[in-house]
Batch of 4 targets.
Target 1
Amino acid sequence: MLEWILILLAIAAIAALLGFDRLSGVALTGAKILVVIALVMLLLLALGVVALA
């Protein structure tokens, strides 16, 4: 998941430099959503709600 976040952030940065504001916003929004999902999963693992077996 970290790989997808980094890819989306790179796309957002390159698109912003080239002037593609909407594409940059979409990529940044996707990265934000994936960060939130990753943090929720980390919290669930830390609390022991979900176990990796």
Note: The chain has a mean pLDDT of 93.
Target 2
Amino acid sequence: MRWQGARGETAGMDLPTALYEPVDGGHLATALTIGPWDPRLQHAGPPAALLAREAESVSGIADGQTVRLAYDILGPVPVGPVAVSARVLRPGRRVELVEARLTAGDDRPLMRLTAWRVRSRNSEGTPEPAVPLPGPERSRPETADFFTTEVAYHRALEWRFASGSFNAPGPAAAWTRPLCALVDGEPMTPLQHLLVMTDAASGISAVLDWTTATFANVDLGLSLVRPPAGEWLGVDAATTIGPSGAGQCFADLYDATGRVGRSAQSLFVEPR
């Protein structure tokens, strides 16, 4: 299938239709999961979404919402077959804690998620201010220059920058919409889209040169006040590097109607 991306840069390019293809006992990662550090390894956004999908599949709260997701990245995830599993750690009719794990080739987990889910109900929420970013229609299409392969993670979403840039250092805010499915044959849900996007917060707001330093995140945490909705989701991110080889990236997360939550990433920094 061919996708038409921002500014037509994918015209004529054959791209996978999904980040993962279902196979017996698991999922096969496609080239759209390739990360920026090594073409053999996945960007953490797609497996984060795959784990959330698995966690929701075992939930005992049918009308629940996921309000906190805490990921530990225990090892690099290869581009290839992966397996995910999930279990309910703390069952409940109103509140539950779910754990999901991702493996590749053996039983050693490479990523782990714990997610708190709560029952949804209608209530009067706290008034939120309007989205402080120009909308996607007033934002600038852009493609990342630092991926080492033409078909990789940056082709899975359409990116439009309200401020900052993929290709220049400093804080950045961008809107995205999916250009593929998470799992072949299924529509990507807004929460899955949010997770595919949010792990890139430290990439769009990078303050170091990709060619001379690595600053991969060892975790990813999201706290949500409500489920995201709609086609376009936004991330407004800033990264700070400390003097001892570590950094943090914090981001506000939006849909078209307002802020849905915040994210945080811990970065391990060293020369390439």
Note: Residues 1-8 have pLDDT under 50 and may be disordered.
Target 3
Amino acid sequence: MTDETEKTQKGDPMNAHVTQLSAPAGTLPPLNARTLITDGATRQIDLDGQIYTLRITRAGKLILTK
């Protein structure tokens, strides 16, 4: 068996995909990031007086910075 086959059978964590879109019982449902960031590609978030910036990259990834 090749290393690649072993990774596929064991589940390579670097290639894991999220398939669950609903929240488990007792938790809040997931938010759509695009509804949080309606104008442009960034949104500021205040947490206990600290300002964070949530950004959607051109590649469609989320980055949260302080």
Note: Residues 49 and 66 are 11 Å apart (CA to CA).
Target 4
Amino acid sequence: MSEPKRKPNERFESYVERLIREAQEEGAFDRLSGAGRPLPLTGGELPEAWWIKEKLKREKLSALPESIAIRHEAEALVEEIARLDDERVVRERLATMNAKIRRLNATAVTGPPTSLAPFDVEAVVARWRARRGPGH
């Protein structure tokens, strides 16, 4: 699709307004995500780099260095394990996290150094079993 052309003697502002009106008429703005909600640009003073933070949140990305982000991920895993009912799943999650930790410990060259050790799977599983109590 070619870009719409400005009409002769059409002011830039009028041109933009015309493009918006035509897009509205064609339904280009119908059913957009966030329709009916205020733009994040409103509501007082905005923090510095607000748009970067919004994009990171929207894209589920992290601005943290890997060596710090892995710590948050490990903490979340500990909380998640407490809610799991299947030892096989507990072991799988620990194995996956340990692989990430080992990879990061072996390759991280930027950001703060990583000092996170892999989980002791047997010790974590033993604590998990103990918290569940007998008969589970």
Note: Helices lie at 12-25, 50-58, 66-83, 87-107, 121-132.
